[in-house]
Write a structure and sequence with these properties.
- It is a single chain.
- The chain has 223 residues and is an all-alpha fold.
- It has one domain: Arp2/3 complex 21 kDa subunit ARPC3 (Orthogonal Bundle), CATH 1.10.1760.
- 70% of the residues lie in helices and 0% in strands.
- Helix 3 crosses helix 5 and helix 5 packs antiparallel against helix 6.
- The mean pLDDT is 82.
């Protein structure tokens, strides 16, 4: 089976495992500290994974597999870790935001340059940040329901909490980093597969002799 065909099967499973692990509480903090960040909030592989699913996954799995994994992990963490209702408005908001990232990935192609795909990963992180923080501005009574309050939600946040602009930086770093890794791995895989397809198969010895016009010597008969 060609490498690219194998990846059509393996890639969705691998990325969904990574997505589930990266979304579990407590995982993002060590990853963020590895890059010198003191706060792991919004440092996640999820943005890049949703974006890359739109690029590389077949049509149906890109939606059902990605959003299904996201939904299951969030239900489990809401119930067993945070102790809140598994189904709340923030859950549906995040699903909607991830759907936007998957759709954004469908606007790109695996044939696009690596730099263009990384820019797309950065854009997906920004889109997710704006959507989720706009919802916080709308729902949180700490924010004034005007332009100033919306800008506050996108920059300094509410008093007593870290500035939300730090969350944006974490989103950009993780979105760009993981998109670069995934897109780079796929580029290398595609290049290796293309090189394999270009290599001609070695012809059997008999075919070589016939092509070169060499007539084999008759076998000696024994008395």
């Amino acid at each position: 089976m060609p490498v690219k065909d194998k990846w059509k099967i393996v890639l969705p499973m691998v990325l969904m495992v990574v997505l589930a692990i990266s979304m579990w509480p407590g995982v993002s903090e060590p990853m963020a500290r590895a890059f010198g960040l003191s706060n792991g909030q919004n440092f996640s592989a999820g943005y890049a994974l949703a974006f890359c699913a739109g690029i590389y996954f077949p049509k149906r799995p890109r939606w059902t597999l990605t959003l299904g994994t996201f939904l299951i992990v969030n239900i489990l963490t809401n119930h067993f870790y945070y102790g809140v209702s598994p189904f709340n408005r923030y859950l549906w908001l995040k699903i909607a935001a991830f759907s936007v990232l998957i759709w954004l990935g469908t606007r790109y192609s695996a044939k696009n340059s690596w730099f263009k795909l990384v820019r797309g990963g950065l854009l997906s992180a920004i889109v997710f940040y704006i959507v989720t923080n706009t919802a916080s501005w709308f729902w949180d009574p700490a924010y004034a329901k005007n332009i100033a309050g919306w800008l506050q939600a996108l920059t300094i946040g509410s008093p007593g909490y870290p500035p939300t602009i730090q969350f944006l930086l974490n989103s950009l770093l993780s979105g760009g980093l993981f998109t670069a890794l995934f897109a780079g791995a796929m580029k290398l895989t595609a290049a290796a597969d293309e090189q394999t397809e270009k290599e001609p198969e070695e012809a059997p010895e008999a075919e070589k002799i016939e092509d070169e016009g060499i007539v084999p010597a008759p076998e000696k008969s024994e008395a």
